[in-house]
Design brief:
The complex is a heterooctamer, with 2 copies of chain A, 2 copies of chain B, 2 copies of chain C and 2 copies of chain D. Chain B is an alpha/beta fold. Chain B contains 11 helices and 10 strands. By secondary structure, chain C is of the alpha/beta class. Chain C contains 6 helices and 6 strands; from the N terminus they run E-H-E-E-E-H-E-E-H-H-H-H. Classes of the chains: A alpha+beta, B alpha/beta, C alpha/beta, D alpha/beta. Strand 9 of chain D pairs antiparallel with strand 2 of chain H, so a sheet runs across the interface. The structure holds thiamine diphosphate (TPP) (2 copies), iron/sulfur cluster (6 copies) and magnesium ion (MG) (2 copies).
């Protein structure tokens, strides 16, 4: 379980820090999370999404909702 | 939300291929169930045979994985026997409209209070990519190597013509909309169906010019129009487009209820006779 | 002298192992003039899990077409290695992708580890030809098919226009084998259980 | 004029089947009409709503058996009725019921076949189909009553066996038994034993819905009772989830058969008359057994030492019983309204300990006592 | 490197089936995909349009068999392929084809059952279903090849028998034979005999489409050839129109069986190895016969006098042949990937002239030569 | 016209009950065939099982009386095998929309060039009056002794939604109109269906307040509105009315033709390759 | 076979005489011909239509077309 | 003393012969305390042709429930008479509707002809009670059921509100029988074939 925590940048929206958790053994590397994130929060690396820009995350939840394998959790 | 509250964790990871959209539909369903606060003991998921029909194995409800095409008929028995149960049927385009087409139209006609989720990937995924009744004309299937010569069903149109109360179409790309459509279906009295357009990258995408799961998702984005917008667009702009949203929502007699009314009428007569 | 040689190619679906098996079997049967069978196994209802393709080569009749005393096994993934190594005979050859199979099985095997996928990606430039690299390795390590026969079968079987790149991969594999030939080893192995929770790779009918 | 008990009626087999089923607790019926079974559906449609039960006419026979399996999973005793063509259509889901161990009763009122055949004429030509109609190895119980009263009894027994062993049970009527009206005195409710499926005692977490229990029969929780388990027609392990592991698959399929094979004494019913000292036997079932009985009586009057063997349970087949008696007979005559389907099984069972003579009729007419009697006489003289 | 004839290929059983069918003149295929038969549909979809033939994927298996019967009535050689669940669904219309005497080929690539079972694993558990799956008395021909080459041959023979006797023929493959790729050298076209249905010679007015001919097989006019006759699944007379007259019904049903029973020599194929002097026999079919052969060879090396009996025709069952050989054996071992379906028939045939030992496997794994060999050794020591 | 030119006189009289409308539909069909001047040798009549399906026994065409519900699937095989044949399917409401519902919608979807005549008597006549998918809600059937609790199909609406080219409804009362509808159907390329409303006095009429054949005919007269007139009437005046006439008539890809186009395309490619 | 022939009255329409033929053994007496004829040409008698007013016949053919049993022919 | 008596009621569908059979059988079994079976036959797929209903009355077990040596046969139509008279035993009673059955069969039968339908229509006022008139005749001619038993069974079986008219018909039938009792005759018969082309009366499942 990869846990990445970072304080949210104060862009006027949410204030709690975003966390994105990856249940790596369940991830199949489809890249849906990475390629469809409007904020380019991830890049795919070794068939897994790697967080590269968490601060851009708007917590829109779409990556979680679209992850077909229950591998991504945005909290 | 914590999906794990509704899953059989020991059955994970999912059997489906990389980028298969089935999991996205499943998640959308679970969110709707969570919002409604339904008791897992009262939910029954019935499915047929197909990749999508494997859904029933993962959810922590009462689950019945039946025979190919027959899920609705099994579900009808369950619902009739215990009307207080919430019965959800998960099925593929093949399962529900090819071999299962008759149960599909008759369940709609009786308008029995079930919810059907059709995972429409326009192909028979499980058996290796044969064309289905929703494969577009000209499209590839392993049994349509030169392009499909058959016309496709409009699943939603068929359901409405057969008598369903609630008919909606969504895509896994438009996942927020899908959530609402499914919630609407679960809440509706009568037969409700949500056709969820979902990618099968392995067989459909690979051979139909949508090489990756992401390409398939993007295709959905580009080729759908909501019913609301469609109403305002000229027909030529709608050609080849998929119309999403609630397409039919009406109150029609529901079978179990009608049956119970009949029983009550008989009881009343009986009392009168005494 | 009569011989009977069993090869098992294992990995995950979509790695082209069925094609590799086909080529191997055709090389042996159609061009080397032996007998051969090729078969594969599927998971339930065609989805899920590790995948295997088996080739039996013999100069006599092949009655039972499933491998049971495997002479050479290829494992491109750890999961496949764990799942299928059981039938590898004592003294048999185990060829693994060095980058993928970290936990080697315990047993009386001649183990060869080569960075198979990496060779395909880096030396040939296309990861999809991993299967052909493996084919080259197997050709050399097994010595049951001739290089010429494999070349012919390969040309016939791969999609038109891809012959050269596939042949290149095949020969890269052969070269790798020649380097390895003196570098087999055995392993004390790791507990297989450790990997039970690992993701099942998706499988697709090829 | 005599006064009869209020339990004496003129009744047809189809009616008796319905009345018995309702008494045994059937509260769900799904079916698709077909001659000569339709009266069962019609009566159920009339009776069930009055008892708070459910009747539904499905779109075909495939849906009908699916619906009763669903209803049974949800805890209702459920049944359907059909005839040959519909029974053929039910085969796939019949196998599903075997594999998932769902109790239910399927009535096949046999008519002339194959295909549409002779829809209003009697036949007994689906007895092998009842055993082997669905694909894959599966156990089956099939019962073939000879009279209206026996139809009543076997309907109840069939439902009981179904619940006890978690198997679909097939009640094989024929057009004659189904349609003849005869005088029956029904048992009082106290005389009737009604069996319901065994429920699990353990908590949901411990529950193995397909446990390899000693009896072979796992307790069954109904949908909605909090057990939330998985039911699948795929090979599965004790927990109910799919498995491809050879050992577990083997254990499953063999247990399914063990459930039946270990309880033959409970399941098999075979009746005899004049067995003692008999040198000839007539083996007959269903309505043909009535003709056979008459023929045996006629022969007995001429002092021919012939007996009647009348299996009520056709499947599992009473191999041991027959094998035990076989040596005593010079011949076993097997009259049946088919081309010798059970004669073949008798022949298998007796293994040349006696000669089996098959008397067949497939023209839509019942076998007349005289026809059997003539054959008995001929055999007695051999 | 050797040079092989251009007729030598690596080929799987499913492919051989398609190639043979096309050679034998099949120009119509209707089917519904199911593992492990789907390659047959896929190949047909690729090949037929190129040959001016028709491929159609129907909505289910019921429609598939209906469509091929329709196409055959219209004069095309037609076939379908499926596996257990689909084969169960085809049963009603299979009976229709028997009753209306329409030639067609139905391939059942057997997989593990019952129900959805083990979709990708081999089994031989539909052999009894092939005989008895549809309702009513009906004759059937079923063939079970052991190798890819034999699949090729039996596909052609099956189509020939079908046309010759106006019957549906069932080709029972199993997952192993269907999917194994092996080296085959196909016969040259001159070596292949292809039979087409006999056409009527008489004028339309004289034509009796269901005549009780001496051979039992009436000549068949195709739709559109000017004969305008009636085809029905109801019992019918020689003219094809429905009848309930006992005599005519009897004549029809018995003729349907006579067609097969009078031509057993032509239909039954049973192969033996080492029969002479053998004291033990292994009776095996389909892919299990391959393991059996290996085991017999192993035993022969240890001088155990065992032979292999390998029926290629399963139905009609080779009763006479077996009965003839039985006395010579102390035991007949019957290994099969089911719970003893054919062992039962062998037991029936040999009638205690020899002991029948059933070796069963139903876990999705093929029976290994070693397993059979061990059993042979055990029996040899008894 | 002389109907005898198209009948098997030795099979007469008809098996049907007094006043059964099946014979009226049959006559209408024969008139249409005569007008078109079709060769009897080229006509195939396929039927299922039911009173109405007995039609095939009487006509001097190539006739195939198949199994219950499956006529369209058999007919599809015949048509595919020999596209030059004119294939007419006769079927009951039960045969074509209950057990045969799946073949009905798929034949419509493929839009294969067949004509289907549905003899809709709103009941299962042959087996003794059980309710059918077209028995009106509340109506009597021997399996609906207290009134039918199920909603009825709109056969024509279903056919159109599934993809048929030509959909029409007529009654045996309006026999001249029926002639035209059937002729239109026979002429149409693609799947054409005519729903003929026809009385079953024995089971439907007797128990549903239409005691005689004549009463049933008169009921038809009183309860039908042509599509043309219906277009001008307010909805409340159409309640409970049967709309007759051509309801759908459109040109859609026809399956056999599409298949043959595919074959030709392949041939062309093949020639090119040489 | 009952054949009734009469010259048509000259009402300005057809001039050839109308004939109505009944194949009595096929008639089942449903009365559709009689009761639906706008001109009351028939009455039912002994379960068969009996012509009582042939002169009124307009040769509309409806009775023939609606006779379910091929029993009536208007020529 | 043991007895076994077979009655066959024949006519065309819709004439209520199944009901008449039911009443006869119930009278014998439930009220006279004998055994009885009643059965009927249908044409193919439930439509078409002559119809028959059979009752067997015995003081012992009735094994074979179909009539084969008919003691008394009723024929309300010529077609039924032709089709079903074959099983009437020598010396058996044939009761026909005098207005319907013109061609009497050749044979050693005691034939009674009464205008059964006409009695129903004219003396009772409803043609539908023809079956009850026939029942009265049969009761008297056969002497195997008591009048009281038939009355009871009839009251139970006929639709509520129609008891009296049905009973009236029954008694009119009995009276007709008493008049007839000395008027049976035999016939030299007509060729059955003559009627082959006659219309088949429609049949409906009752
Ligand atoms: C009676 C029967 N016929 C055929 C099959 C084979 N089969 C399994 S799933 C399937 C189609 C799956 O397609 P769909 O329902 O669209 O599901 P998907 O896999 O695409 O989600 C088929 C043909 C079967 N299991 N049973
Ligand atoms: C598989 C099968 N199921 C049921 C039947 C019994 N059956 C024969 S016809 C029929 C229904 C007839 O209704 P419809 O199609 O409306 O025809 P109708 O008789 O009303 O003209 C039924 C249920 C059958 N023959 N085969
Ligand atoms: S929550 Fe939205 S913005 Fe944040 S990573 Fe996911 S998709 Fe991107
Ligand atoms: S969407 Fe899910 S499965 Fe796909 S790459 Fe991202 S985390 Fe992995
Ligand atoms: S084959 Fe297609 S539908 Fe099936 S799991 Fe793979 S991607 Fe999903
Ligand atoms: S039962 Fe109805 S549909 Fe059948 S023939 Fe009689 S009237 Fe016609
Ligand atoms: S033709 Fe017209 S007017 Fe003349 S009798 Fe017939 S219905 Fe009457
Ligand atoms: S319509 Fe025909 S069947 Fe009816 S009464 Fe007139 S002639 Fe007779
Ligand atoms: Mg799909
Ligand atoms: Mg109908």
């Amino acid at each position: 379980m990869t846990t990445t925590t970072t304080p949210r940048p104060s862009n006027g929206k949410a204030t709690t820090p975003v966390q994105i958790l990856l249940e790596a053994p369940w991830c199949k590397g489809c890249a849906i999370c990475a390629d469809l994130c409007a904020k380019n929060v991830f890049v795919m690396k070794n068939n897994l999404p790697m967080i590269v820009n968490l601060s851009a995350c708007t917590r829109c939840m779409l990556c979680e909702m679209r992850c077909p394998d229950f591998a991504l959790t945005v909290i | 939300m914590n999906y794990m509250n509704y899953l059989r964790k020991e059955r994970m990871p999912l059997i489906w291929c990389t980028g298969c959209g089935n999991g996205i539909v499943l998640k959308s369903l679970l969110r709707a169930v969570e919002r409604l606060g339904w008791d897992k003991n009262e939910i029954v998921m019935v499915s047929g045979i197909g990749c999508s029909s494997r859904t029933s194995g993962y959810v922590d409800f009462n689950t019945v994985h039946t025979t190919h095409g027959r899920a609705l008929a099994f579900a009808t028995g369950i619902k009739m026997a215990r009307p207080e149960l919430k019965v959800i049927v998960c099925s593929g385009d093949g399962d529900s409209t090819a071999i299962g087409g008759n149960h599909f139209i008759h369940t709609a006609r009786r308008n029995i209070d079930l919810t059907l989720l059709v995972f429409n990937n326009n192909i028979y995924g499980m058996t290796g990519g044969q064309y289905s009744p929703t494969t577009p004309m000209g499209g590839w299937g392993s049994t349509a190597p030169y392009g499909n010569a058959e016309s496709a069903f409009d699943i939603c149109g068929l359901a409405a013509a057969a008598g369903a109360s609630y008919v909606a179409r969504g895509t896994v790309y438009h996942v927020m909309q899908l959530d609402k459509l499914i919630e609407g279906a679960l809440l509706k009295k009568g037969f409700s169906i949500v056709e969820a357009i979902t990618p099968c990258p392995t067989y459909f995408g690979r051979h139909n010019n949508q090489k990756t799961p992401v390409a398939m998702m993007n295709w959905q984005e580009e080729n759908t129009v909501t019913a609301a917008r469609a109403a305002k667009l000229p027909p030529e702009q709608l050609k080849g487009k998929i119309i999403t949203g609630v397409l039919t929502d009406r109150d029609l007699p529901e079978y179990v209820e009608e049956y119970e009314k009949l029983v009550e009428r008989l009881r009343a007569q009986d009392n009168l006779a005494r | 002298m009569s011989f009977h040689y069993e090869i098992r190619l294992s990995g995950s679906g979509g790695q082209g192992l069925v094609l590799a098996g086909h080529i191997l079997a055709e090389a042996a049967a159609l061009y080397d003039g032996n007998n051969a069978t090729q078969s594969q196994s599927y998971g339930p209802e065609a989805r899920g899990g590790a995948s295997r393709s088996e080739v039996i080569i013999s100069d006599g009749d092949i009655d039972y077409p499933k491998a049971t005393h495997v002479d050479l096994m290829l494992a491109l993934t750890q999961q496949a290695c764990n799942k299928y190594v059981g039938d590898l005979r004592a003294g048999g050859i185990l060829l693994v992708d060095a980058n993928e199979v970290a936990n080697l099985p315990h047993g009386d095997y001649k183990i060869y580890a080569a960075p198979i996928a990496q060779i395909a990606e880096q030396e040939v430039g296309k990861k999809v030809v991993t299967n052909m690299v493996a084919l080259g390795l197997i050709t050399e390590l097994s010595q049951v098919v001739t290089t010429a026969a494999v070349e012919q079968a390969l040309r016939k079987r791969v999609p038109k226009g891809t012959e050269e790149i596939n042949l290149k991969a095949f020969h890269k594999g052969r070269e790798a084998a020649l380097k390895l030939q003196n570098h087999s080893f055995s392993s004390t192995g790791a507990e297989n259980g450790a990997l039970a929770n690992e993701v099942e790779a998706p499988f697709s009918l090829e | 004029m005599k006064t009869l008990t209020p339990r004496t009626h003129m009744m047809a087999g189809n009616t008796a089947c319905v009345e018995a089923a309702l008494l045994a607790g059937v509260r769900f019926y799904a079916g698709y009409p077909i001659t000569p079974s339709s009266e069962i559906a019609e009566l159920m449609a009339r009776r069930l709503p009055l008892l708070g039960g459910k009747f539904i006419q499905m779109e075909d026979e495939i849906a009908s058996i699916a619906a009763i399996i669903g209803a049974s999973l949800a805890g209702m005793k459920a049944m359907t009725a059909t005839s040959g063509p519909g029974f053929s259509l039910m085969q796939e889901n019949l196998g599903y019921a075997c594999m998932t161990e769902v109790p239910c009763l399927i009535v096949n009122v046999q008519r002339g076949g194959p295909s549409t055949g002779l829809p209003t004429s009697p036949a007994q030509s689906d007895v092998m189909q009842a055993r082997w109609g669905t694909h894959g190895d599966h156990p089956i119980i099939a019962l073939a009553p000879s009279s209206v009263r026996e139809t009543f009894d076997e309907t109840i027994r069939g439902l009981n066996l179904s619940e006890k062993y978690r198997v679909p049970v097939i009640l094989l009527l024929d057009e004659i038994v189904a349609h003849v009206n005869e005088k029956v005195t029904l048992p009082s409710t106290e005389e009737i034993e009604i069996i319901a499926r065994t429920k699990p005692l353990e908590a949901s977490e411990q529950y193995l819905p397909f446990a390899h229990t000693a009896s072979g029969v796992p307790p069954m929780a109904n949908i909605g009772e909090g057990y939330r388990y998985h039911v699948t027609g795929l090979a599965h392990d004790e927990s109910g989830f799919p498995t491809g592991e050879a050992k577990k698959v083997d254990a499953l399929i063999r247990r399914l058969h063990r459930k039946i094979d270990d309880h033959l004494d409970d399941i098999i019913q075979i009746k005899t008359e004049y067995l003692e000292g008999a040198e000839l036997a007539v083996f007959a079932y269903g309505s043909t057994a009535r003709s056979a009985r008459r023929a045996v009586l006629m022969a007995r009057e001429e002092n021919i030492p012939v007996c009647l063997i009348r299996p009520v349970t056709l499947w599992p087949f009473p191999v041991e019983q027959l094998r035990g008696w076989a040596k005593q007979f010079s011949h076993v005559l097997v009259p049946e309204m088919n081309l010798g389907q059970m004669a073949h099984e008798v022949e298998h069972a007796v293994q040349s300990a006696t000669k089996v003579v098959s008397l067949t009729r497939i023209d839509g007419e019942p076998i007349h006592p005289q026809q059997i009697f003539a054959k008995i006489k001929e055999l007695a003289q051999r």
